[in-house]
C-alpha cells in the first residue's frame, strides 16, 4: 500500500508498561510503529529517507502516561501527508513528520498486537502487546470484526480470544489515615514482602513491621519520590541499614 492519507483508531487496556500495539514497514525504509514504552504511548513514523543521508525521515512522538492502569484508552491517528494528528483519550497532539516525503509505502503486512521478527535489532528488543483491544479500524476496515469472522487473508491470528479477561488482582485504596494490619509470622527467619503501588504523593509510609522479641523493625516508605527501606536491628553494632532507590 502507498497511501497519502491514513486514519487508524482503536481502544486498548493493559496492565503491562511495554508492548507493540501495531507495526507496518516497507522495503523503501518506510515504517509506522505504535507502542507502549514505560506506560507512555510512542508513535514512530518514517515516510522515507534517502541513501545519501541528507533526508532523514524518522519521527518519534510520545504522549500520555500511566497507561498500564487496566482502563480503556482510545487512540486516533489521522495523517495527511506529513501532517499528523495523534489523539489519546480526547487529547490531540499535532505535529509534522521529518523528511520531504508525503506517502507511507508499506510493502509488507501490518500487524496488530506485536511485530514479526525481522532480524533487525529493533524487532527482538520489543515486546508484544499483552492486554485487550477493541474497535480496531484501519483506513475504513474494521479489523476486529474481520479477524473474528476470519476474513483477513493472508493472516496469522495466533492465540487470540475474542473476550477480555479481567485480571485477578484486587486493588486497595488508602487515604491519608487508613492502613491495613495483618498478623505476623513468628519464628520465621525470612521476612519477605512484595506489592505494586501507584501514588501522586511524594511522601508516605508503605510498609512497617516490628520484629519479634524487640529485635528491631523494618520500614519501607516514599521520601521525596524515592523508595527507601530502613532496617533497624537492636542487637548488632551496625544497627541500621538504609537503602534508597
Explain what the structure shows:
Pfam families: Laminin_G_2. This is CNTP2 protein. Residues 1-164 form the Laminin G domain. It comes from Mionectes macconnelli (McConnell's flycatcher). This protein is mainly β. It folds into two domains: 1-147, Jelly Rolls; 168-236, no CATH class. The protein has two helices and 17 strands. It has helices at 121-124, 143-148, and strands at residues 2-3, 5-13, 19-25, 31-37, 40-46, 59-63, 73-80, 83-88, 91-96, 104-105, 110-112, 132-138, 141-142, 204-210, 216-223, 226-233, 240-244. Strands 9-8-7-2-12-13 form a six-stranded antiparallel sheet. A five-stranded antiparallel sheet has the order 6-5-4-3-11, with no helix packed on it. The mean pLDDT is 87.
Annotation keywords:
elongated; Laminin_G; single chain; CNTP2 protein; mainly beta; 245 residues; Jelly Rolls
Q: Which strands sit side by side, in order, in the main sheet?
A: 9-8-7-2-12-13
Helix-strand pattern = EEEEEEEEEEEHEEHEEEE
Biggest pleated sheet: 6 strands, antiparallel
Structural class: mainly beta
Number of helices: 2
Number of domains: 2
Give the strand tally: 17
Strand percent estimate: 35-45%
Shape: elongated
Fold-level CATH name of the largest domain: Jelly Rolls
Unreliable residue runs: none
Which oligomerization state do the chains in this entry correspond to? single chain
**Measured distance between first and last alpha carbons:** 48 Å
Q: What is the CATH class of the largest domain?
A: Mainly Beta
**Rg:** 24 Å
Amino acid at each position: 500500500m502507498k497511501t497519502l492519507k491514513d486514519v487508524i483508531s482503536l481502544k486498548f487496556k493493559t496492565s503491562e508498561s511495554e508492548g507493540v500495539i501495531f507495526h507496518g514497514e516497507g522495503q523503501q525504509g518506510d515504517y509506522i510503529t505504535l507502542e507502549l514504552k514505560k506506560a507512555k504511548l510512542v508513535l514512530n513514523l518514517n515516510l522515507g529517507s534517502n541513501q545519501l543521508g541528507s533526508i532523514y525521515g524518522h519521527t518519534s512522538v510520545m504522549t500520555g502516561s500511566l497507561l498500564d492502569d487496566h482502563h480503556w484508552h482510545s487512540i486516533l491517528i489521522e495523517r495527511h501527508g506529513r501532517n499528523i494528528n495523534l489523539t489519546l483519550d480526547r487529547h490531540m497532539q499535532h505535529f509534522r513528520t521529518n523528511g520531504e516525503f508525503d506517502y507511507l509505502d508499506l510493502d509488507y503486512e501490518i500487524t496488530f498486537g506485536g511485530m514479526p521478527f525481522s532480524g533487525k535489532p529493533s524487532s527482538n528488543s520489543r515486546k508484544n502487546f499483552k492486554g485487550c483491544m477493541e474497535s480496531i479500524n484501519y483506513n475504513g476496515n474494521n479489523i476486529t470484526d474481520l479477524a473474528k469472522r476470519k476474513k483477513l487473508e493472508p493472516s496469522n491470528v495466533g492465540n487470540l480470544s475474542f473476550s477480555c479477561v479481567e485480571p485477578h488482582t484486587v486493588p486497595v485504596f488508602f487515604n491519608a489515615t487508613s492502613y491495613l494490619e495483618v498478623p505476623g509470622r513468628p519464628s520465621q527467619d525470612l521476612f519477605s514482602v512484595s506489592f505494586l503501588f501507584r501514588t501522586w504523593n511524594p511522601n508516605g509510609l508503605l510498609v512497617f513491621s516490628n520484629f519479634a522479641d524487640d529485635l528491631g523493625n523494618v520500614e519501607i516508605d516514599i521520601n521525596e519520590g524515592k523508595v527507601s527501606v530502613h532496617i533497624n536491628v537492636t542487637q548488632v553494632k551496625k544497627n541500621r541499614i538504609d537503602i534508597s532507590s
